[in-house]
Amino acid sequence: MDRRKFLGSALASGALAASASSQARESSTSTEREYYELRRYHILSGPMKQLADSYFKDALVPALNRLGIKPVGVFNTTIGAQGPSSYVLMPAPKSETLVAAERNLLDDAEYQKAAAPFLNAPARDPGAVRMESSLLYAFESLPKLAPPPAGPHIIEMRTYESTTMQDHIRKVEMMNSGEGAIFKKSNFWPIFMGDRLIGPRQPGLTYMISMSSLADRDKNWAAFFGSPEWKALTANPRFSFEPIVSNVDNEILTPAAYSQI
Q1: CATH architecture observed for domain 32-255
Q2: Phi and psi, residue 238, nearest 5°
Q3: CA-based Rg of the chain, rounded to a whole angstrom?
């Protein structure tokens, strides 16, 4: 069997199993949920950052668009424990599209030419220190990526870890059953919410929300936690019988000037 087909089939099967809850099932008429690859490039400031920006802007993003992967988000860490980093968010309707992307880039002469300075940089002066990647499956409540409205905005990316798969499934169910709607009511813009299928810190999920400023972020979170809907959700015994989230990491990101999200 072709490796790409095998991996794609396996990932799709795993996605359905990992994101299922005991009380929710997709119907045959529901909106098809997307897959996301989220990459983190650890990049030092100075020449390395300039080289990476040129690579993302002139090589990677256009080539991914040619593969049907769009819109592509590129974000820089403004506040966060991960240090100087750039994130690349890649959406696709099928997992196979993301699995095959690197192999298809090898056959893209235009990409290879534009990416050469980054790809061929010597180890003593690389374009990035390292790259980490996760594969995620969109939540039922937000099946497709939703770019924020045009205009200045910042992004908060939050990652939740759970101690057990049971707790993780309940947290996903909690977000699907109302938490996403509370974000919108609190003036956040949910960009994506994804169950992590492959990557570190399992089981876990990651989502991005946008707002216009840090000041608005504080006001929005106050509205979120003070809302009667949130208080009712957290009082539900299904979600409050034990701590279902063991760790939360959050980072403030700024879209690159050429980001499509």
Answers
A1: 2-Layer Sandwich (3.30)
A2: -65, -30
A3: 19
In this prediction the pTM is 0.87
- Bridge partners of 132? 40
What is the Cα–Cα distance from 71 to 110, expressed in whole angstroms? 19
DSSP state of 100: T
Average pLDDT of span 172-200: 96
Structure confidence at residue 29 (pLDDT) = 36
CA distance to 197, 204, 205, per residue, from 200 (Å): 9, 9, 11
CA distance 246 to 204: 10
* Nearest-angstrom CA–CA distance, 12 and 26: 14
Query: Cα–Cα distance between 245 and 258 in angstroms, integer?
Result: 35
For CA atoms 28, 206, 13, 16, give the dihedral sign.
negative
Residues facing residue 177 across a β-bridge: none
Q: What is the pLDDT of residues 12-52, one digit of tens each?
A: 444 444 444 333 333 333 579 999 999 999 998 788 899 99
Q: What is the C-alpha to C-alpha distance for residues 54 and 59, in angstroms, rounded to an integer?
A: 7
| 3-class secondary structure, 159 | strand
The β-bridge relationship of strands 154-161 and 247-255 is antiparallel
Cα 193–chain centre separation: 7
Whole-number pLDDT of residue 47: 87
* Domain boundaries, given as residue ranges, for the chain: 32-255
Q: What is the largest CA-CA distance in the chain?
A: 57
HSE (side-chain half, CA atoms, 13 Å) at 213: 3
Distance, CA of 170 to CA of 206 (rounded, Å): 15
Q: Which residues pair with 62 in a beta bridge?
A: none
